[in-house]
User: Fold these one by one.
Assistant:
Number 1:
Amino acid sequence: MDIRQLVTFTTIARLNSFTQTASELGYAQSSITAQIQLLEKELGIRLFERIGKKVFLTSEGSEFLAYAKQMLNLWENAKGVASVADTITGPLSIGVVESVCTFRLPYLLKKYNECCPEVGIVLKTGNSKVLQSMLRENQIDVAVLLESEIPPPEFEMKYSRKESVSLLVAPDHPLASKESVCSEDLSKYPLLLTRRGCFFRSIFDRIIEETNVPSKITLDTSNIQAIKQLAMLGFGITLLPKFAVVDELESKQLIELHWSGTEFDIMTHVICHKDKWISPALKAFITIVQENA
């Protein structure tokens, strides 16, 4: 049974004529007859009977007509939902690390809202491990991570870009004038760190572990704005992505140190679970990121 057969059946029932139905629907009369014969065979009932030159519904045909009309109405409603190309609706749940949420995501969401104003956006923050767990549990549709590694194969990469990360101090900090700094230099001054589990904190922890140099942790917080403010006031050294300190670097409120160690490799990844259905709302968000990030 298909939609074409139902349309043909209901049209014959309305016109009481195979010939007029063929003319209205643009089929050969033999095609109309074949469709009805196939439908009757599948249902196991007789839908029409001919008396003279007239066509009448059988009692079974009359009963089936009510169901056929309901099925066609449902089909029209389904087409209506699927065909509203100009009105993308949500909700859309986005998981994002805090630094991206604070400094880069607002611009992307503004662009997204311009093209998809009917989508309701839900933001959830967390570190990479937490966000990947949310994707597995289908608690979010997409995750925006800061990572040094490629996510596991259960996730599909939608976007990726390399990010610049810098060691930062106030202009009057003792290390600001040095040509280069090493892990021993960092051990002499207070550190302003993000919480454990954050990617930037893991970089500091790796430096400390590799060099076995003690460190002075003055601040441990997930609030990047607080870290920036304290760094500008000379409280210590911090490590942040450049996209989070563009204005502070341009105004010379923060100075980038010349790190002599291994380069800080970090990437922004936008990922979905490989089994996730890419809804119109999610597809539009991915497109916005790819074109504007």
Number 2:
Amino acid sequence: MKNILVVGGAGYIGSHTAKLLAKRGYVPIVLDNLVRGHRPAANFGPFFEGSMTDRDLLHKIFSDYAISAVMHFAAFCYVGESMDNPAMYYRNNVANTLTLLEVMVGRGIGNFIFSSSCSIYGEPDETPITEDQPKRPMSPYGRTKLIVEHILDDFEWAYGLKSVCLRYFNAAGADSDGELGEEHDPETHLIPVVLRTALGQHPHVNVFGDDYATPDGTCIRDYIHVEDLTEAHVLALEKLLGGSPSAKYNLGNAKGYSVKQVIDIARNITGREIPAKIVERRAGDPEVLIASSAKANEELGWKAQIPDLETIMETAWNWHKNNPDGY
């Protein structure tokens, strides 16, 4: 049984991945400072409350457990917040990650799975977006993800650290068992905001601009179920542990939905009115982001099993209905 350190494993995607790792026979060892994670979501292996900046704690974990690889889910992830407070994003997403990587290299741990983002592309030249498209992030959040990708390239050249960067498009949905779901504070992700509005927890959904050059004027995004993301993480892990080279992959469904379409689908699924209000555009939002996952399909043997937004939304709605106050 291989030990995998899951940094940020009490958060949304980290907790789902830790659960799948345990199912597949790995031992997920979760490190999370619980600033934005939830202790009840980290029940699938040993848990350490703390930060990836705590070198003493990292050395203790690496001494107590033979760690085969590290998975990193501990970044802050809000575009708007990063525009308002870039210092916080560069400190946590870049500087703190650098501390983790330095300790890994010092301990001889050579496999790293990084939670990257489609935000590194900015406004794409073409859609669906392939991995070789230009990288022009429009927000500090996107820039922090791209900086870490560059750091990983340099760490491989200098220290032999292998990595897989998984560039998510829009993670959504909830655990099919109903055990885990999406809860952030503050919550800015569209689907949980829409569903919380359906539950009466928000007066309306803010639609940030309806004057984009899209069919209904609102931004278009590619949504991918969280369990499909976790499967890609485990496949990437197994590739690295099996000796495959470092790589970067887009993960999405190659299908886009506008903000208005998401709200309409939620109305159909919930049977609720879900008021929406058009407000000014939000800085840092690209117009259209749709993935090509052909490279992940070919090299990882990965394919999304829940490609339609209706099913993705249903899993999220089931969790929010059963957990209206979150964890």
Number 3:
Amino acid sequence: MDHLTDAPVANILILAGIIFLAVGLFGRIGGFIGSIFGNIEAGKNSRVLAGILGVLLIVGGGWLHEDSHKSAASGASSATPAPAASSAPTASTPPSTPTAGTVPPAPTPDVGRDSPRVKVSTPQPSPNRTLQPRAPEAPERAAERERLPTPTPPPLGDDRLVGTWTNLTPRTDSIKRIEIARAGQGLNVHVWYSCSADECDLGLHRLDVSGRTPAYTYDLTDPNRRITGYLTLQTPNVLHVMIDRLEPGTPPHRRHWVFTKSTISESVLRAFATYLDAPGQKAFAMAPGVWSYQTGQVSADDAREKALHMCERRGVPGCRIILLNDDAAQ
């Protein structure tokens, strides 16, 4: 009886199909059904159509009935609640004792122990933030890198110092000539001194170019008797040399000289020669590319001011007095 009420539309279609199929088979309907719908009599063609229609209605009603039955069964299985896990008795709550005449419930299996473990996947980092491991360097590339030449450090010192320099005003107690040459990344200076034999070799010394002014130092006979020379370029072809002589028990003795390079122009050499031959108070001023001198002045200061003023009028910065009378200006 439950199947007659769970799908009313399907049942109606099946019932109607039976009636039409009966009309097709017997040609008429009477009796109890005839008392409800009336006596039905059909011709030959009507019986055929009634039979076909009855078969279709029975098939359609059966399909609807089966489909509704499946939907009801799936809904009932999804709506059934899962059985609650029985909690184990604790020390504070004793297990309940079954009453007489009742059957104790079956023990609940240890679901947590027997149930399969759920494998939790480790979250992977974002591809954009993943640091790729550095590939090992190929042996061929490492060997090639070892064969590369070591970068050479830049040379020290001003290359304009390199060359032969001659003292403009040589005396028997002065340096006569120096030669500066490149030695590796540094510079060496070779010094000759004026002596009774015309020229005495003071040896080859390393030129220290770490400070503002290149300098060289050598000992005379012991470390307490020392000479230090300082070299300053006035122009690319004019060099100012200052010598400090240090000896125990005496104050430092300082001397100045002006040297010209072997590549100096003939016009500058003639200007120096004219200046050195002129009598009286005089001064020689110079800057890169220009020079000016004044001779026959009332005083050395007057000659200095005029020579410096004439040099600065040429518009070249860096004018300075290099000779005052016949000595290098300090």
